[in-house]
């Protein structure tokens, strides 16, 4: 039961370079003088700063297990994460800017859903259909779109560059079935993205009611104590 976690590691090269300044400085300057030591220390700090600038921290992604206390919830979150990773890869393959934007919305909403359920496993039942049907179907549909785009991009290789389906159509190709599939996907991605966001928002419905009640109670207490004037 795994999820991806990013870990930043600081490069060691800037440290080695900064340390190397000291023996080199000791050869060039009399280290028994305080001014020389300060110069070497300053040079070491500058070298470390420059080294850190040109050697930024490395970001390492590794898989870590979900640990919600429920194997079923862990399995659900693992499956959702895998599908979202697949969605991300499909997004990289699809050149359509508008479609890519809607896929970004889907992925962001999906990953937020995972974070909420990971913190509050009791909400898993609320996203059961999302995990078992909505997300897998969306990925399946978009995979079909990406496959058709790729197939016709290969057809368009004779034009001298990788092309989209639309470019092939403009060149004279007629394909009613494939065009219908692509048009249907394009029309419905906004709706799917909105549905994902609504699913995320629904997870906060109980908290919204509780907070609203708490605010009303607090407001009543403040008014009764004449603290709102």
Describe this structure in words.
There is one protein chain. Helix content is 72%, strand content 7%. It is mainly α and 229 residues long. It has two domains: 57 residues, no CATH class; 141 residues. It is extended and about 80 Å long. 19% of the residues are buried. About 7% of the residues have low confidence.
Write a brief caption for the model.
The chain is mainly α and 229 residues long. Helices cover 72% and strands 7% of the residues. It folds into 2 domains: 2-58, no CATH class; 66-206.
**Low-pLDDT segments:** 156-163, 168-174
Strands in their spatial order, largest beta sheet: 1-2
Q: What overall geometry do the principal axes of the alpha carbons give? A: extended
Rg is 28 Å
Quickly count the helices.
Answer: 8
Q: Give the count of structural domains.
A: 2
Strand content: 5-15%
State the end-to-end CA separation: 55 Å
Helical residues, percent: over 70%
- Mean pLDDT across the residues is 82
Strand element count: 2
The largest β sheet comes out as: 2 strands, antiparallel
User: Which structural category do the helix and sheet elements fall into?
Assistant: mainly alpha
- The ordered H/E elements are EHHEHHHHHH
What are its keywords?
single chain, 229 residues, mainly alpha, 2 domains, two-stranded antiparallel sheet, 7% strand, extended
């Amino acid at each position: 039961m795994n999820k991806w976690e990013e870990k930043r590691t600081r490069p060691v090269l800037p440290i080695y370079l900064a340390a190397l300044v000291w023996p080199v400085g000791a050869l060039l300057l009399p280290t028994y003088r305080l001014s020389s030591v300060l110069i070497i220390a300053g040079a070491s700090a500058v070298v470390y700063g420059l080294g850190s600038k040109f050697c930024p921290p490395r970001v390492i992604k590794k898989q870590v297990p979900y640990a919600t206390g429920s194997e079923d919830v862990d399995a659900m979150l693992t499956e959702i994460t895998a599908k979202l990773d697949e969605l991300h890869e499909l997004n990289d393959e699809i050149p359509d800017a508008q479609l890519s934007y809607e896929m970004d919305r889907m992925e962001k909403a999906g990953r937020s859903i995972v974070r909420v359920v990971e913190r509050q496993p009791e909400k898993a039942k609320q996203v059961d259909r999302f995990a078992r049907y909505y997300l897998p179907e969306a990925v399946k549909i978009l995979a079909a779109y990406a496959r058709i785009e790729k197939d016709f991009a290969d057809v368009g290789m004779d034009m001298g560059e990788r092309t989209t389906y639309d470019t092939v159509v403009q060149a004279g190709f007629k394909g009613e079935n494939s065009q219908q599939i692509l048009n249907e996907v394009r029309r419905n991605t906004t709706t799917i993205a909105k549905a994902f966001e609504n699913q995320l928002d629904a997870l906060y419905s109980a908290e919204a009611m509780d907070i609203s009640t708490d605010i009303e109670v607090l407001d009543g207490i403040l008014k009764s104590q004449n603290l709102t004037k």
